[in-house]
Each structure stands twice: as C-alpha cells, then as structure tokens.
Amino acid sequence: MRTVAILLLIAACAAHGGNAARELGVPLDGEPGAFNAITDVAGVAVGHVTLIEGDAVRTGVTAILPRGREDHTPVFAAVHVFNGNGEMTGAHWIAESGFLEGPVMFTNTHAVGAVSEGVIAWSLKNWSTPISLPVVAETWDGLLNDINGLHVRPAHAGAALDAAAGGAVAEGNVGGGTGNRAFDFKAGIGTSSRVVEIAGARYTVGVLVQSNFGKRPQLTIAGTRAGRAITDLMPEIHAPPHGEGSLLAAVATDAPLLPHQLERLARRVPLGMARTGATSLNSSGDFAIAFSTAPAPQTDGSPLRAAQFIDNARLDPLLGAVVEATEEAILNSLLAAETMTGRGGSKIHALPHERLREALVR
Q: 300: buried, middle or exposed (CB in 10 Å: 19+, 13-18, 0-12)?
C-alpha cells in the first residue's frame, strides 16, 4: 500500500478543478460553480487511487460519494445506458428502487469484481452495513495497462473511498481514467459544473466523466473539427486494440428531483458527448448515473413517505446544464491528461494545447 499512498499524494497535488478547457480559452456556455467540478454540489466527495508501476501498470479507481464519507443516507437516483457494450453493476436495483445506497466507483473492465469486494469491505468497516449491490462501472484500458494482470485489488477501492473529499478534483491521468484515451489522444477523468436558477432558487449540477471513446476525425471542440486539424501524434500501439472504448458519467445535483426526473438528466449525457463529435460506436459502453443530494424522503414510521420535487415544466435549465457540463468535463478529461507510455511500449500522446489553440483561432 506504500505505492498507493504516494500516488494519492500525486493526485492531490494535481487537483485544480475542472478548468483546463477554460484556461485554454475554449468558449463554453453556462455558469460554472466555484471549482467547476462535481464537488460543487454540496456534500459530494471524490477520491482517486492511481496505479502506475513499472512499464505495464496504468490503471486505478475513482470513488464518488453522494453525501461524503460520513453520511450513507440513500439518494434518489437513475441510470441511463446509451450503448451497452460495458458494465455498471447495481444498475438494476437503482432502476427498481429509485435509490442509490452507496458510492459510485469507476475503474477498468477487469477490476469490477475487486472494486465491488472492496466497497463491501469498506462499508462494513465504516458504515457498519454492507453495500450488497455496489455500483461499479468500467472502461477498457488495455492499450496502456496490463489489464489481465488484475492489478487493482479490493484495498485500492477502500483507499479511493478513504481519499474522497470535496473541493478541487484531480483530472486527466488519475484514478479509473489513468490508462484511458479518447479521440486517439490521452484522456482520463474530467469534471465540470453549472449553476442555474429556477423560480428564484439556485441549484448546481455537476458531472464527472471517465473518457475512453471516439476516433480522431470526430473530435470537435467549440464547433471546430479539431481532430482533422491535428492528424499526427497518433497512438503508438504495440497491442491489438479492443475497440473504440466507452464513456462513464456521474451526474450530481442538489435540485430536489424524483428518480424519473433524474433519468431525464442522465439521458442528456449523450448530447454532451455528441457535442465533442462522438457517435457512440458498437464497442462503446456509455453509461450515466444521476443522483440528487436533496434531503431524502422522511417518514414518522408510517408506510407513507413524502418528498418534494421540481415541477417537470421547470426542468429545462437543469437539462441544459447536464449537456453543457458533460461537454466541458470531456474536454477537461482530454486537456488535463498528459502523454503516457505503458504496456509493451505503447504510447498515447496528449492533445497539444498550443496547436489546438491555433486551430480554434483559425
């Protein structure tokens, strides 16, 4: 676990909030929160464990806790699957019950079981209750990572949960996104947020993504076909590709919404994905989970429970906020990432900032 502790320190130093695209001058819509991150939704905490060992291990775990480490009160939630070539465990019970009863975990495809085991062990220790159906989602990082070596262990999931905190969120080559790529550039974790007003009340929507999808010619930034302007720096791959990858997205809001309304928010994630040029290919596993941190329904012991929720006719600002924040989170996952060499000498280049700036100016 010594390596894990060192890497957690690296991730903490790299945290800067979701501002990579804005620092580059990319024109973006909407008003971000203080950190431009999913953690702008009060109570939400994010933690990463990043595993970089030798020349073949490039992977990790990202944990998202809706109410932080101390409060495990269930939250209303919903899941949307845009293209199902992937896995998000626990999704069926969320659809059935309308509740998320623990953290959301992002990792690599072959680490789903280990991370699930780790969440159960951590919840028993910290909450004195098992999370019997943990929510664990994955993307395939086998180009840079020795994915069949099963390097993610249950203890790494626990360490990511222990590291979860509010404030700025580390992006790029961290956590579950360590070995990922998008549009043939290095990518990983990205986040963004939007603040909207509905009937005089201000609400926050935050999105965190794990990007691992798309082909170079598709990449579109602020309406510019940036991928067509940068045709070199293609991945130097010494292993057979698995496909064009996936997108994972966690959407958080403090707006009081019912599960069916949260599903409507989750269904807007693919629109943000489409703004970056992606079409969601056959091999893409595109999963979104949305949850609300508004107070859970209360009861005095009677069989009836009461909950407040925003009228459907007032949802438009929230729906638009998801699209905007998803688009920016994906861009941040690219622009915060750095060139990485991994398994077998494979190399994936970072999106060059200055060349992108020139393309946007043109």
A: exposed
Annotation marks residue 283 as catalytic: no
- What does pTM read for this prediction? 0.94
Which amino acid is it at 224? T
Instruction: Express each pLDDT in 172-214 by its tens digit.
Output: 999 999 999 999 999 999 999 999 999 999 999 999 999 999 9
Q: Please indicate whether residue 146 is annotated as part of the active site.
A: no
- pLDDT digit string (tens) for 287-336? 999 999 999 877 677 888 888 999 999 999 999 999 999 999 999 999 99
CB 261 within 8 A of CB 200: no
CB 138, CB 86: distance < 8 Å: yes
* pLDDT, tens digit, 9 for 90 and up, residues 5-28: 335 443 433 455 678 999 999 999
Q: Catalytic residue at 284?
A: yes
Residue pair 66/351 in contact (Cβ under 8 Å)? The answer is no
Residue of 246, 280, 292, 346 with catalytic role: 246
Q: Which residues pair with 273 in a beta bridge?
A: none
Tokens of 263: 């599903």
Q: Which residues pair with 193 in a beta bridge?
A: 206
Choose the catalytic residue: 146, 184, 254, 286: 286
| Strand spans (E) along 122-188 | 135-139, 181-182, 185-186
Measured distance CA(215)–CA(188) in Å, rounded:
15
- Asked if 49 and 163 count as a contact pair (C-beta separation under 8 A), the reply is yes
Residue tagged active-site, from 284, 292, 333, 346: 284
Domains of the chain: 2-296+310-361 (3.60.70.12)
User: Which residues of 213-308 form beta strands (DSSP E)?
Assistant: 246-253, 285-292
H runs (alpha helix) in the chain = 2-14, 20-24, 91-97, 112-127, 154-163, 226-229, 259-266, 269-275, 316-335, 353-361
| Helix residue spans in 56-135 (DSSP H) | 91-97, 112-127
